[in-house]
Structures are given as C-alpha cells and as structure tokens.
Write a structure and sequence with these properties.
The protein is mainly β. It has a domain of 120 residues: Nucleic acid-binding proteins (OB fold (Dihydrolipoamide Acetyltransferase, E2P), Beta Barrel), CATH 2.40.50. It contains two helices and five strands. It has a five-stranded mixed beta barrel.
Length: 186
C-alpha cells in the first residue's frame, strides 16, 4: 500500500515536471516589485532589485558579448504575457548575454524579461534624449507571433441568414415536426 502511494507521488512529480514550459523559468518577483516608472524616478534606490517586465521590442543592438534589447514596456497579464494596446509604462533596456538574431527578435514582437535593475542609461529616441532603465537579464521569453484567423474575412465561410441549430442548407421544413405549419398534424 505504501509503495503504491509513493509510486503515485513519483508519477505526479514527473507529470508536473513534464508540464513546465520555458516561460516558467521567468520568475515572478511578486507583489511589491518595482514598476518601470518607479525605477525611472529613483534608479539608485532600486539598484539590484529583481523585476519581471515585458513589452514590445523597439530595437536590437548586438555588441561583442551581449545584446541590448530596447523594449517599450507594457503591463503583463497573469501568465506574464505583455498586453496589447496603446498604454506604455516607459522604455527599458534589457542586457542579454550572447547573440540574439535581429531577424527573430524583430521590432514589434512581444518579450518578457526577468532580471535585476542595473541603473539607468541615456540614449536617443529620434532627436530626444531618453533615460532608459537598464536591466541585467537572467531570463527572457519571446512570445510567438499571433496567427491570423484563416476564416476571418473569407466569404465562403459566412454562415448565411438561416444559421442556427435547426436551419442550414439541408433543412427541410416538411419533415420538421416543430415547423409552424405542421404542428396540428402530429
């Protein structure tokens, strides 16, 4: 009996391990973690704090040993995915070890980054000097591109005016006992 219980616990542990994904490696710092605007207001106070931020990629710059990813910050949903929309918390600069291909990490793709606050850096956005929060990344997740709905604008898949549970192209009211003209006969 004890062996069966231990075997069940071992199987449960294996199942939970197998269900983990790459984004699970991006820890959530929890409540009270600083936002981008908090760190921009006082970067020295938040130096070394753990964060998890995300947003849309605005640019990628490969250097000798690291890649700088410029991100327009967006709020994250419960799964850590950046939300779409026009709201922005500001920009931050993620410093990621190694080479990231700019063709894959292209402008507009969504990314979630975890790491520690590493101060601030002033860089130009157009002709404007902008103060970025710099994050030393310990993990990141590039979200897959949304796939378009193939049936969204195809007129062949329009359900028609008689769409419903009892109507369709093969509906024959003569054999339908609930058709209004046939109710009295059955």
């Amino acid at each position: 009996m004890v062996r069966i219980a231990l075997l069940g616990l071992a199987c449960l542990g294996l199942l939970l391990t197998a269900c983990s994904t790459t984004r699970d490696s991006i820890p959530d710092p929890g409540r009270g973690a600083p936002t981008i605007s908090d760190v921009r207001a006082s970067p020295d106070r938040h130096q070394g704090e753990t964060i998890r931020w995300g947003g849309s990629i605005a640019g990628v710059e490969n250097r000798q040993d690291v890649t700088l990813v410029e991100v327009v910050g967006r709020p994250l949903d419960r799964s850590g995915r950046p939300r779409s929309g026009d709201s922005s918390e500001g920009r931050f600069l993620a410093v990621i070890d190694g080479f990231l291909d700019p063709a894959v990490y292209e402008e507009g793709r969504r990314i979630t980054v975890s790491g520690t606050v590493d101060g601030d850096v002033t860089r130009a956005v157009g002709e404007h000097d902008y103060r970025y929060v710099q994050v030393r990344a310990t993990g990141h997740h590039l979200w897959p591109e949304p796939r378009p709905d193939p049936y969204a604008h195809d007129p062949r898949y329009y359900p028609g005016p008689y769409y419903g549970p009892r109507y369709g192209p093969w509906y024959d009211p003569w054999y339908d006992p609930w058709y209004p003209h046939r109710r009295g006969f059955r």
